[in-house]
């Protein structure tokens, strides 16, 4: 049994089709990987999170979605926990617990076989009492719930049921694609949060792909806010404010230009806006560790 984090964007109607990527240079997920950050004594974390739109408050439960390659019906708590811990390389599972403990968040794992979705199909829902993580261990709840109950949880945490203006075209899982057609869409994510070795948040990062041939320098927050990405950035600001950090957007090309624009958009004591920015060449090759480390350092220096 293998448990993995789904990362590849696939077309909802035809998951054999994946989103365009530059296989030579890679993308921010490749550059800001655990492997490269370790060289700078840094860590990373990413997750899905909720904002209650009725109270305008950040929900303390954060979700980590994982897929499994077997039918979940006969899986036990012990089997799933063992596979989950093994799947999170470089001590990532422990990093999750320590991060949540530090910031008073609760880690929830949504684990599923990503096929044939319906209201009665079940997912594994595991929650860690992150407030009480000690050197002696931790305790996780474990239950198998139908998709309909998962939708009820989503509705409660978002404060209401609502339909997206349009269904997802691409998603990292068929579950997200399925829920985008309902009044309880799957919660949005934060692309990456950079942590120091003591789990203090250094920066919240948002990645924006630039597929057009227009200059990368023309990319800025106001191209997307408050128009089509208003909810996304409002959510990210609430999260960044809670973590008392800063929000940086990385706009990056997918062609041979190898360019990016890095823009500071928010600090926990400011308003959302386009503040300082810098044009940076992105790593020319996904295997060039030195270029990647230098790029990470330049981004975080903004």
Layout of SSEs?
Elements: E1 3-4, E2 10-11, H1 28-31, H2 34-38, E3 42-52, E4 57-68, H3 77-87, H4 92-103, E5 106-112, E6 122-128, E7 140-146, H5 147-158, E8 170-171, H6 174-179, E9 189-196, E10 201-210, H7 230-242, E11 246-253, E12 259-267, E13 277-281, H8 289-300
Parallel strand pairs: 4-5, 10-11
Antiparallel strand pairs: 1-4, 2-8, 3-4, 3-9, 5-6, 6-7, 9-10, 11-12, 12-13
Rg over alpha carbons: 19 Å
The coarse overall form would be: globular
Instruction: Please give the number of β-strands.
Output: 13
Helix and strand content put the structural class at alpha+beta
What's the SSE pattern? EEHHEEHHEEEHEHEEHEEEH
Mean pLDDT: 95
How many H/I helices?
8
Q: What proportion of the residues is helical, as a percent range? A: 10-25%
The residue ranges in which pLDDT falls below 50 over 5 or more consecutive positions are none
Task: Characterize the largest beta sheet: strand count, sense, and whether it forms a barrel.
Answer: 11 strands, mixed
Kindly estimate the percentage of residues that lie in beta strands according to DSSP.
25-35%
**In angstroms, what separates the terminal alpha carbons?**
42 Å
> What count of domains describes the coordinates?
1
